[in-house]
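Dear colleague,

Thank you for sharing your sequence with our group. We've completed the structure prediction you requested, and as agreed, I am returning the results in plain text so they can be pasted directly into your records. Please verify that the sequence below matches your submission; if there's any discrepancy, let me know and we will rerun it promptly.
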Amino acid sequence: MSDLPTPKMRKTTNWSAIWILPLIALAIGAWLAWRAYDQAGIMIQIQFESGEGIQANKTEVVFKGIGVGKVVDLHVNKPNMGVTAVVEMRKEAAEYLSKSTRFWLVKPRVSIAGVTGLETLVSGNYIAVDPVKGEQQQEFIALKEPPPLSDSLPGLHLILKADRLGSLEQGSPIYYRQIQVGQVKSYQLAEDQKTIEVKVHIEPAYANLVRKHTRFWNASGITLSGSLSGLKLRTESLASIAAGGIACATPENYADSPPTDPTKPFRLYEDFDAAQAGLAVKVKVSDVSGLTPGSTPVMYNGVEVGTVKSIDMDKDFNGATATLSMDPRTEEFLNSKTEFWMVKPSISLAGITGLEALVKGNYLNVRFASDGEPTRDFVIRPKAPPLNLDAPGLHLVLTTDQLGSLEVGTPILYRQMKVGSVQSYQLSRRDPSRLVIGVHIEPEYANLVNTSSRFWNISGITVSGGLDGIKLKSESLQTLLAGGIAFDTPDPKAAPITKVRRFALFDNEEDAHLKGQMIELRADTADGLKEGTVLRYKGLEVGRVEQVELSKDLQSVLLKARLTRSADRIARQGTRFWVVGPQVGLSGVSNLGTIVSGQYIEVLPGAKAGQEQTSFSLLAGEPNRLLDEDGLRLTLSAPRRGSLKTGVPVTYREVQVGKVTSFELGETADRVLIHILIEPRYAPLVRTGSRFWNTSGVGVDAGLFKGVKVRTESMETILAGGVAFATPNNDTMGAPAKPGQTFALFDEANDEWLDWAPKIPLGKAN
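Please find the predicted structure tokens below.
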């Protein structure tokens, strides 16, 4: 047993090669798990109205032909009975899944616009996506139709306004010289619900073809027109016949048209002819006789600028709306101040107008304006408008009381040569009793008129006669029938006319050439005053108002008047002017004739001739002339005025010997001071012992035994009041009264005063 060898002890490990395979499998599994996690997509939900054409684990989400996701599940959405597709999107698409991102189903689609989604016949339907960066979202609602082109797409984005859509739809082509340069993006009803807004996109390569004056028209279908000369067929392309389309072009006369402004919409015309004619304009007319759609022209200075396209009668048949097709070159002049009117043959005393309409028929005439609010709706004028104030030549305004035989077109004559014409006439807004006539002087004759010019009516015949014979006068045979206006310029060196000016239109040449002194009257108001108002002195006409205008500060009215009599005596310092009108009062009725003849201006020259003066202020009322008369001036003191008024008589033994001139309160306001004027002849009647009493009204004395006694001076004093006085007998009358002396005014007379009868020599009668 001892011979056995001793065993050798050696250290061993627990590892075995059999564990290599499990470890490799574990590493591969971990790598696959990490890879699966790293490459896992983002789960989103897309809601569709129907799941037709969508298959789980087959239908892809495609962007620009590359798959970026796949439908992994499909189930019914119970609340709205739609279909919800669960889609796994690539992880790199996470930042593009925002609120603005859009999804839609692409499938084969056939329409008159063409065939789309044809590739899905082989690959199957797929979901298209329009990714937009933004805040991430996981639930989406698919679009029913493919979205329009994005506004951020390179190129030109425009809005076209049309009256109707026609056969246009999304994707309809846009042609320029039959080359497709863009397409329709979308369309919608405008806010006014009267027009349709069509959004279009022009490719970047063709964006420079669209200018400010480019015209767009609907090129859908076929346009067929014909006449005796033959038939004409027009279409853009075979595609546009079926699917519709829009054509565009820039008129040759706008070759230098500036680039367009994308913010301003274009008009989409109905057809090629409408686009070529340019502009659709609507005109309200009351009478359509002589207007023929398609043939009646619109003329401007003898040049055709449009055509009547159609006429639509109003519902009540009291008028109609004519649609005009205007030349595109007139676009800048179609504004609120542009005027249309119908021209038809007319025969009157003023002559024959519209003679050319006898041959070519009635037509519309237009006068463009350079400024005003742009518009396409107008109301036709009943007659030709007067010339604009900016038209070449001289524009004047004449004022008169009667039109006579004057009318639009009546000639303006200078030395029997026609130099202008009447343009318009109407009632004055300030004074309906006056007529305002607008006249135009031709440019070559404008220098014949200046501030000294005088205009008069030469209508008809003027006949004057006497014992030495009869004189007949007429300007011409034309004015004998149609009327006319003549003028003359006495002073060629007078100030020229630089703006519209008013002139008085005189009834005849004699009145127009009355010489005299020009003066200026300033008044607070022109009520009742007008051109032709008469200036009178003591009932005689001494001048006339020729012009009424506002002052530069608009605070007063300036009256330019011509003095034709005694001008050297009236145009002096101290002269007073006031308006005389009808007056009705207790003191009587005066100036009743002015109700018919109209108000006039009374003139009162100064007592002494002062320095020359041509500018005066018009008094508010008649001045107190009693203050200027000679005589004995006295003052009466009374507790109250009673019914006394300025001008009431002062009587002696019921004979008027003076007048009340004015009133005022005493210094302590406890008395009324009445100023009277005694005529010079009767001044000796007033003595220091004289007594004054108020004779206003009626005095009544009554007693049981003596009866009733009524006392009054006169009927005049009953209504207007008056003052009487008496002077004691010779032994108690006292000294003659001095000017300015004050007497007490008693309410009534004592019986004793009425018995006084002194003998006093009177002054000499004037």
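Summary note from our side: The radius of gyration is 52 Å.

Kind regards,
the structure core
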